[in-house]
Inverse folding.
């Protein structure tokens, strides 16, 4: 347990520092917008390209990991749509519930897996992200878009233009095709990659909004419980059907135990969903994950 807390503590500190800087307005709001954009379009892609291009990947074994991840998403999404049908939940709220339960915070996932599982864990996570990001983006957009017209062509274009997806594809192609990369370029990518995680966690803290938590408390608690505890239990259950290694199982369970993505707020606002509820969910899940993640990590060994 002490090793888990040691690994989590720096992450929590960076999130708290980011929140305090934003709360006391030591830096302007535009700084955080520009920083998140820079991280999203430059630093994160550098991390994915470097990790995937240099990794030793067992593609045959990764098939089982990806099948487990997609099965968990499929089960969770099916259950959510069944509840929507029974409860007649409008799109503005349904999209929030879907994102609360199927989306994940990339910043926290990368920092946590890097701290706990190092290079091997990062390779598994990078491939999970390459597949899950487009899938989850489509699920989220469709859940929010029932009352807001959006063509499938628009959805596909938005997925293909995602820098994280593009960088994952580039990194995998370099690995599979054994494309030689100049050492100077690799070292540059490595430096950019190293900057992405601490900066990303500061942005997570800056995005927290606690004023909205006082509303819809039962809904917030249900979404938080489902994401932080029910989803990792479901992932562990599905993992037991497959012959996965301990590391693969641990990364998958942690992947589904993460708080929802800060970017959910922006997507919800753009597609006319209940963005105030989304902000409250993001903030509550991020705080509660400081308690639930150590429990989940200890449970999966």
């Amino acid at each position: 347990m002490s090793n888990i807390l040691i690994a989590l503590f720096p992450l929590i500190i960076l999130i708290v520092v980011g929140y305090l800087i934003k709360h006391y307005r030591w830096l302007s709001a535009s700084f955080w917008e520009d920083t998140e954009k820079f991280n999203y379009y430059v630093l994160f892609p550098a991390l994915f390209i470097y990790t995937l291009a240099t990794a030793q990947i067992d593609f045959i074994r990764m098939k089982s990991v990806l099948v487990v991840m997609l099965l968990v998403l499929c089960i969770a999404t099916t259950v959510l749509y069944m509840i929507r049908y029974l409860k007649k939940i409008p799109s503005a709220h349904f999209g929030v519930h879907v994102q609360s339960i199927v989306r994940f915070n990339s910043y926290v996932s990368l920092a946590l897996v890097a701290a706990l599982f190092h290079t091997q864990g990062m390779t598994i996570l990078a491939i999970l992200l390459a597949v899950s990001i487009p899938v989850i983006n489509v699920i989220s957009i469709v859940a929010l878009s029932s009352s807001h017209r959006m063509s499938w062509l628009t959805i596909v274009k938005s997925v293909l233009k995602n820098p994280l997806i593009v960088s994952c594809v580039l990194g995998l192609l370099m690995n599979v095709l054994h494309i030689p990369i100049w050492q100077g370029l690799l070292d540059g990518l490595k430096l950019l990659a190293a900057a992405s995680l601490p900066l990303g966690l500061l942005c997570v803290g800056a995005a927290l909004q606690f004023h909205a938590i006082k509303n819809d408390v039962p809904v917030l608690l249900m979404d938080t419980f489902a994401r932080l505890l029910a989803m990792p239990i479901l992932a562990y259950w599905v993992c037991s059907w497959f012959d996965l290694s301990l590391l693969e199982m641990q990364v998958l369970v942690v992947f589904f135990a993460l708080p929802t993505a800060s970017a959910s707020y922006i997507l919800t606002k753009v597609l006319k969903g209940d963005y105030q509820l989304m902000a409250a969910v993001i903030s509550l899940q991020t705080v509660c994950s400081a308690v639930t993640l150590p429990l989940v990590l200890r449970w999966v060994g």
